[in-house]
Amino acid sequence: MGAPGHLQADAKWNRKLIIDTARGVFAEQGPGASLDEVARLTGSDALQRHFPDRDSLVHAVFSDGLDRMVALAEEAREEETWAWDSLSRFVDRCAGQRLDLLVSVAGSRAHGVPAAPEIEAGRARLLKALDQIVGAAHDEGALRPDVGAGDVMGVVGLLVRGLPTLPADLGEELRGRTVRLVLAGMRAHPAPVPPGEAMTAEELIRRSSDHG
């Protein structure tokens, strides 16, 4: 039998795995998705042991996601000199980690899950941090004046959902390019040209077929 410390570490790791897995499933199918896929990927016994019902799992995913996004926003503001770079970094990291701003902020209100104090507090912290970044980018003259915090939330949600029918590596490549293209469109002109070569439709079809 393992030492208590190892057992606690294993339990913590399993809980994190379930939350991360559920986040991916919710990102593709929404918080109303069946938990069958989460159970298949993590084991039904582990899922039931850590989260006895749907509400407890959805609360954990929302709370964890909000904490991560607040941390990303605060790090971006502290470590980047320019507000535009903070905003770009925040959007890119949220998309890369599949953290859906819109779903997390709407949370229980939009999906019929009972409210929880930690989710309400996390939502308030995230909205405050996002408003500060967007406001600073406006003051800097880098962000288009017709782009608001709600637009940023919607953009991140679309980027997170991505293209689940594509092979994972190609989907991630397209997500990265799309992040840069969308950010370029949100920036007050002149905007820098996004890095990388344009992907033709023929190349996309060929690369999708190669993974079939």
Automatic annotation (TrEMBL):
Transmembrane segments: none annotated. Keywords: DNA-binding, Transcription, Transcription regulation. The keyword DNA-binding applies. SUPFAM superfamilies: Homeodomain-like, Tetracyclin repressor-like, C-terminal domain. Coiled coil: none annotated. The keyword DNA-binding applies. Residues 113-188 form the Transcriptional regulator SbtR-like C-terminal domain. It comes from the Bacteria. InterPro entries: Homeodomain-like_sf (IPR009057), HTH-type_TetR-like_transc_reg (IPR050109), Tet_transcr_reg_TetR-rel_C_sf (IPR036271), TetR_SbtR-like_C (IPR049445). Pfam families: TetR_C_43 (PF21597). This is TetR/AcrR family transcriptional regulator. It comes from Nonomuraea insulae.
